[in-house]
Amino acid sequence: MRIAIVGSGPSGFYAAQSLLASHPTARIDLLERLPTPYGLVRGGVAPDHQKIKRVVKTYAKTAADPRVRWFGNIELGRDVTIDELLARYDQVVLAVGAQSARKLGIPGEDLRGVFTATEFVAWYNAHPQFQDRAFPLHVKDVVVVGVGNVAMDVARILLASRSHLAGTDITAAALDDLTDGKRTRVHVLGRRGPAQAAFTPKELREIAELEGVDVRTRANEVELDPLSAAWLAEHGTKADHDNVAFVKECAGAREERESGEMWLRFCTQPVEILGEEGKVAGVRVERTEIIERNGGLSARGTGETEVLPAGLVLEAVGYRMIALPGVPFDAKRGVVPHVDGAVIDGESRVPDLFVVGWAKRGPSGLIGTNKGDSAATVATMLELGVVRPAEGPDPEGWLLERQPMLVRWEDWERLDELERVRGAEVGKVREKFTSVQQMLAEIDCLDPNCDEVR
Ligand code: NAP
């Protein structure tokens, strides 16, 4: 029984773990488009959240299992098609995540200096595809749109001191660019109220605990409206209550700080990004009120506006999956349509094709959420069995034909070691490679016949 898992982030590794546990005869190939594994744990989790990254130890154990092979630098759509994979593997699992970002869809988004938070995060985390972005970081005001954990991550990284980031695995270029600027104020915009904030209390408190940084809120924006107060009392989690209590504390008078402040705004939605000579200069925001809509609480504009200064705008309003060639896509929800993890095309099931993680349920939840989610898809895989068994020999030779610069797990282990050594030389956890070419050169893989010469 041969199974291909496309993508080697948390959901891909959890699918492999679950398959190994429940399907002893399974042989698993993890296919990854980058020469590095771990998806958002490497490219998304903030550099100052090293504890969270320790989860990769369990993924490395999975990769070391003799029933598992990991192949890097091979991309679905570029090097292989989904039909080709389905012909060579008994079952295929898509664990491709959500590689793009949602946009606001307001005027001014195309101005220079407007980015998605996804791009910013990928840049400081060394993702090779985002190293060419030039963020204007030497500005006084930054506007971050959205109040989820990604917004908290980027606000914290923007406000953190050099000493806070210096020992982490942030790239050398990002460390320099981020910590020698004049930026002092980060305005973070929530279109609804504090009871509806999507961040977790720990993430907000971490910002308040940064040296020399204040978190500020406006008293009139953190006072709950009657609908939110009733919702909080009836349905609010401990995290919701903690968030509301904390943002109220932040509304009091504070002493001026030297290094930075975060203005956490609520009931404030962006309506237009304003520019000067093609460059962002501010954001027109509108005060909102909370109303009931479709059984939930929504924001409705009141018409009252103000302009916030901004030299950089980061939109942190959620990730979005990119459609894959030949794979059904629900454009409205931005996911692969499925029933219990089995991919469907209209009413009918695509034989032997499955989906896990953000590509399955949308961009929500923490890393651990993927464990149960992947296990649920694996249960479906076992229940449905194989419809069209694979044909032909072991696909490894074919993969190598399609991508002569195929990267193996031993290659990644070498890159991993090299990154740690480079980091140790400058007092960091690791200094990541930032280009695919550089990585391939390090593992002697740039010669197209590399597999024969190694
Ligand atoms: P998220 O949690 O869904 O938050 C998105 C935010 O954008 C919400 O505040 C949402 O407000 C707002 N938003 C959406 N559309 C908007 C619009 N048109 N105008 C203004 N605001 C808008 O997404 P995320 O922050 O990208 O995080 C994704 C997942 O990764 C989450 O589950 C998160 O917890 C997780 N994550 C965790 C960590 C961590 O544990 N440290 C770090 C990063 C990410 P509404 O609620 O009003 O829609």
List keywords for this structure.
454 residues, alpha/beta, Rossmann fold, FAD/NAD(P)-binding domain, six-stranded parallel sheet, 19 strands, globular
Describe the structure.
With 454 residues, this protein is an alpha/beta fold. The chain folds into 2 domains: 2-99 and 321-404, Rossmann fold (3-Layer(aba) Sandwich), CATH 3.40.50; 101-319, FAD/NAD(P)-binding domain, CATH 3.50.50. The protein has helices at 10-22, 39-43, 50-53, 56-64, 82-88, 117-124, 149-159, 162-165, 172-179, 201-208, 219-222, 226-235, 238-249, 358-361, 369-384, 396-402, 409-425, 436-442, 450-453; strands spanning 2-6, 27-31, 68-72, 91-94, 100-101, 114-116, 141-145, 185-189, 213-216, 260-265, 268-276, 279-293, 296-309, 312-315, 319-320, 338-339, 342-345, 348-355, 407-408. The strands form 4 sheets. An 8-stranded mixed β-sheet has the order 16-17-18-4-1-2-3-19, sandwiched between helices. It has a 6-stranded parallel β-sheet with strand order 6-14-7-8-10-9. A 3-stranded antiparallel β-sheet has the order 11-12-13, with no helix packed on it. The longest helix has 17 residues, at 409-425. The site of NADP nicotinamide-adenine-dinucleotide phosphate has 24 residues, from helix 7.
